[in-house]
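Cross-posted from the bioinformatics board.
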Amino acid sequence: MLRRLYDLAYLFKEYLVVMLLLSISIALLTLNDNPQIRTIRSLAIVSVGLLQDAVGIVPNYFDLRRENRILRELNLTLADEVSRLREAKLENMRLHQLLQLQQRAGTTYVTANVIGKNLQLLRNTVTLDAGENNGIRADMPVVTESGLAGRVIAASSQYAVAQILFNKDLRVSAKVQRSRVDGIVTWEGGSALNLNNVAKALDVQVGDVIITSEYSSVFPPGIRIGVVAATHPLEGSLFQAIEVTPSVDFTRMEEVFVITAVPDSTRIALEHRAP
Amino acid sequence: MTSLPMRQTLIDILLTLLIILLQTTLVRFLAVGGLEPDIVLVWIVFYALRRGQISGTIAGFASGLLLDLLSGADGMLGLAALSKTVVGFLTGYYFNENKTLQTLGSYRSVLILAGMAFVHNLIYFTIFLQGTDVGVWGTLALYGIPSAAYTAAIGLLPMFAYARRLLS
């Protein structure tokens, strides 16, 4: 083997000698530090770069597989991060709206998350992750950034249960914001609320906003309840049937505010004493 | 490559050193219009034609390196070595063991010398003028080619000497 190598080297001895001496000369040249050599160095770097680029267009199967695997893993991580960021953004938007509501109303609120919900019954409720330890008591109103959601009916130290508007037992004193016509909002099933006790002659139109009225001893006045979706006169009655679409989308409700103002007990007592 | 006797090698080394000494001291007095002949190059070309490619390559490298070292801060270390190594190597292609004297004693040697002087100047100036505002081709036209011609003219002297030996 060595013999063959020696023979080969002897055959090309002129080229080996000149290559060796030229290499030494070039190595000596690189020791110089003057503009000429700096220019040649930069030219050499550019040439090597171009050569690498030219060679780089030939794909390496194993490198591509490895790169593909890394990119897929990165894609998965980034997709997860995007999902979490989107959630955070939506939550931020909701909380921002709630905060604006809090500032506007000037009342004190307790923030709570909806941790349980039923919407298929006649007496639908939601369970909140805040209770008496947070200052929540029975009869306190529950609102969202969209409007009135319901009323607390029971509270433990850490949890509370609230009736929502889609509950047969909940009645809310309300009025039409535009015409100031009073009525009582109830729910008899279905996807819409009803505004009752409104005479046929009173001015209620589709699109009117319904808000809580000053007559309620539980709910502060002016909280948006919903929008009139349809009106039609009741046969054989003095009143008209008014369907109201609630402002709150209960299927998507995740965070709520509980208004911690306790209803005026003296007013309630007085109203109960009245004939 | 034919192995040379030790005495002949020593003479060659001493001659190389003498020519380099002459190049760096006395040749400036032969300058015409700023052009100087390169007698080291003449020596390398004739040496390669007489001794062969490897000897010419080594002689070119060694003498060029010495010139680089002697030129100090004015030159670029390795540049003369590089250009003269190439000249020694290329001249070796014209080496013919059976017609050495005929080649050396004819105008063929001077033509080879002229060509090699041009190649030498081309390599030298291409590298030396990199990164400067001076153009390589312009410098070659104004200095490189006349200098190569002058070097080739100096080559007539050894050519006549070999021609005389050939005739005798």
